[in-house]
Amino acid sequence: MSSRTKSFQKRFLPAVMAAGAAGSLAAPTLAQDDMQMLEEVIVTGVRSAQETAVNVKRDSDSIVDAISAEDIGKLPDVTITDSLQRISGVQVRRNAGEGGSLNIRGLGQVSTTLNGESYLGANSITTVQPDYSDIPSQLFSGTQVIKSQTAANHPGGISGVVNLETYRPLDSGFDDGWTLSGAAQVGRGKETGETDPSVNFLANWRTDTVGFLVSFAHQTSNLANTYSGMNGDAGWTGFASEGAGAQYSWVSADTQLGGMGDRVTADGVDVNDNGVVGDTFWAYQGHSAFNRASERERDGLNAAFQADLGNGFELVAEAFYTKMEDYDRQMGVAFSDKWNRWGWAYPSISTPKGVEMSGGELHTVQEFTGNGMRLKSYSDVGVTEAESQNFNLELNYDNGGAFTGSARLVSGSAEQEQLNSYMDIDLANGSQWGVDCQLYPAGTAGEQGDCAEGRLQTNPNGYQGWPVLTVNYQGDNPHWSGWDNNANLNRDGQPQAGIASRSLQSYVDDVNSYSLGAFASENNFLREGDVDVVRFDGSYEIARGMLDSVDFGVRYSQRSVDNFEFDLLSPVGGCDVKWKATDVVLNGGGIEGACTYGEGGEYYTAGVPTPISGLDPIQVSDFGSATGIPPVWTVNPEYMDDVEGVHNQLYPGTRRAINPGRSYGVDLDEMSTYIKANFSRGIMSGNVGVRVVETDLTVDQNQVGSPQPYGAANEFLGQVSTERSYSDVLPSLNLRFDLTDEWVLRAAATKTMAPLDLAQWGAGLAPNYAIDGEASSDTYQQFIVIGGNSDGNPELDPWRADNYDLSLEYYLGPASALSAGLFYIDVESFIESGSVQMALPDQDGVVRREVEVSTSVQGSGGELKGLELSAKLAFGDFLYDSVLEDFGADVNYTYSPSESGNQDLNGGDLPFQDNSEHVFNLVGWYESGPFQARVAYNYRSERVAGYNQTWGNGALWQEATGYVDLSASYDINDAVNVFFNASNITDEKEQYYLEFEDQFAWQYEYEARYSLGVRATF
Predict the structure, then answer these.
(1) Which whole number is the average pLDDT over 560-585?
(2) CA distance 614 to 429
(3) Do 877 and 927 touch, CB atoms closer than 8 A?
(4) What Gene3D superfamilies does this protein map onto (predicted)?
């Protein structure tokens, strides 16, 4: 990748920093007001926290919802996303059971700010959608979700802005002198059974005019994340038909697979025996069940200095740091036909859908019975390290006169690196795809057996046939069966001469039946991002007529991102090899001039025979709620935690090699100015303004050349740089009507803009390949193209939308409020995930087939509209001397229908991706004396996870989810508090399906988690 040095960083940034050090202007008190960061006190207790959130909403000059910490260093959840999910309109996606990414009102184009200005998070370097899974919640005093923006807001969110607030030394909740607060807790998962410690600490010192603060949080967690369903993602699906040429291997004989012989006709085979030949069935390349667990360690640090310099000047300097290490380990079993027959699995239970597909009526499949050639165990680790630093220097001026002002300098950097490693571990002896005897250099360890001279058995103790297994997806959980079947039948289900009958179960039980079939590291990345912002804001109080004041400002920002995606290539006989596999022969793959390794006109094999008995074997039996699977031997994924180390240990000289089609660089420079008039007359008040944004976009893309052998990425031919500019004029209007002391009516109209995910501008074409194991194929044992990704287009437009809001609020007590709101978002242009059929070359450069390529396409626009209802109730506000006086509730509901312009297979409209039509939250709480408790229920209705999934047809859906969490605490005295938290106490699962609810795709299972801790403040 190119290294781009910014003139801003070389010239302007040092100058401004020097000026800041000398005490000149550097940041916005005014900007905080514009971001609705109204004065909040540090409060204790559930009721007081709710009262603070109600006051923020009531006093805001736009439509805002808020959450507040109950005490110093305390929000009731692990990540800040967990807390945000309880705000109306916010929809959250969980990662291993913890809150990760979110959207507002069904759109993920959400801007994130830290204390009112740009925040660069390590999990969102290349994306717009926030992902706060690396940020401990204890670092924050509160958070606002701004749904109707003003001209002064930082641009970048279509549906809203999330403003994260940290503590500052002169906050009114801190007494003069020292304030010390800390907490320690231990957590435990119901399934993982690990004891996970977490601590957080805050120290603050202040006088009337100066103070400094340091807060720190450390969390460790081991999280169950079990998987079962199709092998791979939805792109690994296809359709199998009954017509002539259908790829069902057992149609020529009466076999144990249900007696197919009498269903064979001249036109094909009536697989489902319904009297019609030509039906089409959804087909999967494989089925799998994995024990998955994520081990995470988070660190967060916030440091701040604040001083009243006199004469109206205030100086604030802040540093915010996060770091996370995440080891995502999985091990389990997979059954497939190695990318050969789509019809390898017979649809033993299927349902007609009345939709035509591939020339026949489409049937969903609830049970697959197949004789795939490959049963394997699997071990995989994904290691992610994420780190971010964000710095803020600001000088605020307010001397009590008509003019107030601020200047601010923000600089942030973030890095995220992910390394993956996996092992395919074969139970088959390899004869099924012609690799039972492979050629190796003299001296290679292994057994010759019946192989010819110079060849070794790749798995001498593996099964020798095509075993039959059944996977049933009916009911609540997948069920596997057939382990007692003979594993040594031929492809037509008949006994093989000279090969003894032996059950598949007996092979699975024997660790000596397992041998390493493939070892690789791919889809790795290193992402680095920087953002620098300088802004000046002013406000002048006019108080003439209905005009109260005018706010104005200028802002310049530079954002730079490099995305380097790479594979690990290992030198085998002088050739660079990604897939160290027993079916990778070093013959050049038909590519002219490619590196080869062999002798006497024959070629050696990349993957050497390796019994797993010498590779830290482990037997796994816990597959979550998937049933019928016996204990399976595999390699402990912790063996690969040091990804580059273990690859260099087994293959010395392994190195990183760029994947040019997925690597890119983007510079996004913005210059914006705004003016905003604040006005009031009678019961009406509000603001009207406009922000003008000039954007310069530079995209560095890589040109991709010919395919390379042995799994290596396509040839890197050079870099192409595209420069373009665009302008946006973003008007805004916010109106407030104080109908009575309790009733407030609000209306807003704004125009918004957000950049794309940077891969949608920068990424290129990246094909995917696999070995052709079909013996009758012209490309047998060659790498053939099976799909790909082509996401980047620098000419795509950013997201743009017109937003309209109307809300009515009723404040019936200090901590109680009711609100109802209508919203309408008219999206002018949007980007959606899809797939297209493309003719791509195999690795020898010859085009033989069309495959499905995932891509980003520009939609023509769409509408998102809905209703938000909210009730924050402290019953003591209006039920005096009642048994309910100490109880309260925080309830909200969001109705958000949408139309994306896409259609399902029946011609019905599909909603925006990742948007749930119905979301509601129910929180009940109790607080009396030293004891307080709460229980929370969060519900999301089904959502579209992807369009055009199978050969350009069918949507992927996630089913509705509901999570129950609870917490309780007891104040031992004024300084010490003990607490208990529980999350996902109902063991909720996330299930996915393709188009129809009975076409099960996969499920993730998260665990219930419990923690116990103590908190003290002095």
Answers:
(1) 96
(2) 18
(3) no
(4) TonB-dependent receptor, beta-barrel domain (2.40.170.20), TonB-dependent receptor, plug domain (2.170.130.10)
Residues 6+ apart with CB under 8 A from 113: 35, 119, 154, 161, 162, 163, 164
Q: Which residues pair with 858 in a beta bridge?
A: 831
Contact 620, 332 (CB under 8 A): yes
CA distances from 861 to 797, 827, 854 (A): 12, 5, 20
Q: Is 123 within 8 Å of 884 (Cβ atoms)? A: no
- DSSP states of 595-636 as a string? ---EETTEE-BSSPP-BGGGS-EEEE---TT-BSPPPEEEE-
pLDDT in tens, 845-872: 788 888 877 767 666 777 889 999 999 9
What tens digit of pLDDT does each residue of 124-183 get? Answer: 998 888 888 888 888 988 888 999 999 998 877 899 999 999 999 999 889 999 999 999
Which helix or strand (DSSP H or E) is residue 759 part of? Answer: helix 759-762
- Burial of 859-890, coded b for 16+ CB within 10 Å and e otherwise, reads beebebbbebebbbbbbbbeeeeeeeebbbbb
Amino acid at 338: K
Per residue in 229-260, pLDDT (tens digit) is 999 888 889 998 886 555 554 454 445 455 66
Total residues belonging to the chain: 1018
SS3 state of residue 115: coil
Integer Cα distance of 427 and 510 in angstroms: 10
Tell me the CATH number for domain 11-16+26-227+292-330+380-420+525-565+660-1017.
Answer: 2.40.170.20
Task: Supply the DSSP symbol for 358.
Answer: T
398/405 Cα distance (integer angstroms): 7
Q: Are 765 and 790 in contact (CB under 8 A)?
A: yes
Determine contact, residues 693/579, Cβ cutoff 8 Å.
no
Query: Beta strands 976-983 and 961-971: pairing type?
Result: antiparallel
C-alpha torsion angle, residues 121, 127, 130, 133 (rounded to 10)? -60
Phi, psi of 824 (to 5 degrees): -145, 120
Query: Is 591 within 8 Å of 843 (Cβ atoms)?
Result: yes
Q: Cα–Cα distance between 109 and 128 in angstroms, integer? A: 6
Tell me the β-bridge partners of 693: 672, 728
- Average pLDDT over all residues of the chain: 88
Lowest mean pLDDT among 169-173, 296-300, 602-606: 169-173
Closest CA to 1001 of 189, 8, 45, 227: 227
Q: What are phi and psi of 28, to 5 degrees?
A: -110, 105
Q: What is the DSSP string of 138-171?
A: GGEEEEEEESS--TTSPS--SSEEEEEEE--TT-
Using the structure block, give the residue that is written with the tokens 């040092």. Answer: 14
Distance of CA 430 to the CA centre of its chain: 36
Residue 234 is predicted with a pLDDT of 83
The DSSP secondary structure of 762-821, one letter per residue, reads H--EEEEEEE---TTSTTTTSEEEEEEEE---TTPPPEEEEEEEEEEEEEEETTEEEEEE
Global pTM? 0.88
Query: What ranges do the domains of the chain cover?
Result: 11-16+26-227+292-330+380-420+525-565+660-1017
Coil, helix or strand at residue 432: helix
CA distances from 367 to 95, 347, 357, 802 (A): 29, 6, 20, 47
CA torsion, ordered 57, 59, 62, 66, to nearest 10 deg = -30
Distances from the Cα of 588 to the Cαs of 522, 659, 774, 786, in angstroms?
A: 20, 19, 19, 19
Whole-angstrom Cα Rg for the chain: 31
**Residue carrying the six token digits 């489409």:** 362
Q: Tokens in use for 710? A: 């042995």
* Beta-bridge partners for 140: 166
Cα(94)–Cα(928) distance, integer angstroms: 33
Closest C-alpha to 167, from 17, 42, 12, 24: 42
Distance CA 961, CA 941 (A): 7
Q: Give the type of residue at 881.
A: D
